[in-house]
Design goal:
394 residues; alpha+beta; 7-stranded antiparallel β-sheet; 5-stranded antiparallel β-sheet; 22 strands
Length: 394
């Protein structure tokens, strides 16, 4: 009888183990080598403490954190990391101290991330709601002089000398360093959208510390909709990024494996790049055709993994230095392919959502950020986020 009970207990325990462990990315950012002018301000990271704020998409009760040193030439020593619920979306360093939990890495409080490496923490119980503001506090030992991070955070981080949790009077900097992904244990039906993008996805023109990029708008809509309330959103936009090469950060053709397929729980991909390639192009149509070939490769690999792919049309840029008749032909070539190909699983028509009906090669003036005729303001990003059909993600 005892043996039968023990066998049943083992089976139940195994069932729990099999049922759990479905990890989904709830927040993420695309890392790159931080340019010198965006490096951490004095006193720097080494032997100091940094508090960074992120706003997750889907909530949960158990999380783990990935840290990156991928573009750094030397190892970076992490002495300790804590998570806590932040009181703001980045406008202050304040936290709910009662929610603080310490992370471990293979059971140890600290970890050394090798040059060109990443580490992921052990899972920890940490309750957070949908769209919760989470503070990640990192206490550094030695740090690589070349820093891996994400300059376009549109969120304020707080740097303080020494090993401290008191960020009163901290140095403020609107960049993220070392953090890459926050993952949550979620129900089996939960999944994430990974967005491959440039500055328009990264959020240039959105409001610092208000989390109002178009991807944020989409996330809030998904969570408010019963059929899509377990869909996370991972913003893999890099300002100045290109699909083919050049630009800022690793080109999309080189980073998509990491930023799309390297994420946990991805069920959908949105492809929304190429405007920087076209802006630098010597031949708009030929450049567009090369970009389409990269998109086809991504689509094929995604479908082999059971991931659905949506193409987003390139928004207008007439009035910007990127514009010429030749570059416009390239944009039209990509957008026509997106709207007509049977390789994609759906279309998100940002071009149609924001263009000027009287001058379709230009966006509506009400959406302009700094009158550069390329980037959108918060109203424009809201329009983009609201234009997406949520049925795509059911």
């Amino acid at each position: 009888m005892k043996r039968t009970i023990m066998m049943l207990a083992c089976m139940l325990m195994a069932g729990v183990a099999l049922a759990g462990g479905h990890w989904v990315g709830t927040w993420g950012t695309a890392p790159q080598l931080v340019e010198r002018h965006n490096n951490p301000p004095a006193p720097g990271l080494a032997n100091n403490s940094l508090r960074e704020i992120v706003q997750v998409s889907i909530g949960g009760k158990k999380v783990r954190l990935k840290l990156t040193n991928e573009f750094s030439t030397e190892a970076t020593e992490i002495k300790a990391v804590e998570l806590a619920i932040a009181k703001t979306a980045g406008s202050s360093s304040e936290i709910d101290e009662a929610t603080t939990v310490s992370l471990t890495f293979n059971g140890e409080s600290g970890v050394t991330i090798p040059a060109n490496g990443t580490v992921i923490s052990d899972a920890v119980n940490f309750k957070m709601d949908d769209r919760q503001n989470v503070a990640i506090t990192i206490h550094y030992g030695s740090a690589s002089p070349s820093v891996s991070g994400h300059p376009g955070s549109r969120t304020t981080s707080y740097l303080k000398e020494g090993n401290t949790t008191d960020f009163t009077g901290a140095i403020r900097t609107d960049h993220w360093y070392s953090i890459q992904t926050l993952e949550v244990e979620a129900p089996k039906k939960a999944g994430a959208i990974a967005i491959l993008g440039n500055s328009i996805t990264d959020g240039r023109g959105s409001t610092t510390n208000e989390q109002n990029r178009w991807a944020d708008v989409l996330s809030r809509r998904l969570l408010a909709n019963k059929a899509t309330k377990r869909v996370g959103v991972l913003n893999m936009g890099i300002g100045g990024n290109c699909v083919l090469g050049g630009g800022l950060g690793p080109a999309a053709v080189n980073r998509y494996q990491r930023d799309l397929f390297g994420q946990e729980g991805v069920k959908w991909i949105i492809l929304f790049e190429a405007v920087n390639d076209l802006g630098y192009a010597r031949n708009g149509v030929q450049t567009a055709e090369r970009i389409i070939e990269v998109y086809k490769k991504i689509i094929d690999e995604a479908h082999q993994k059971g991931i659905r792919v949506f193409g987003a049309t390139i928004t207008p840029f007439k009035g910007n230095n990127y514009y010429s008749e030749d570059h416009e032909k390239g944009r039209s070539t990509i957008n026509t392919w997106i709207r007509t190909t049977d390789l994609l699983d759906g279309v998100i028509d940002f071009d149609q959502a924001v263009r000027n009906p009287q001058d379709p090669e230009a966006m509506q003036a009400q959406f302009l950020f700094e009158n550069d005729w390329l980037h959108l303001n918060a109203k424009g990003y809201e329009t983009m986020g609201n234009s997406i059909d949520l049925n795509l993600f059911k």
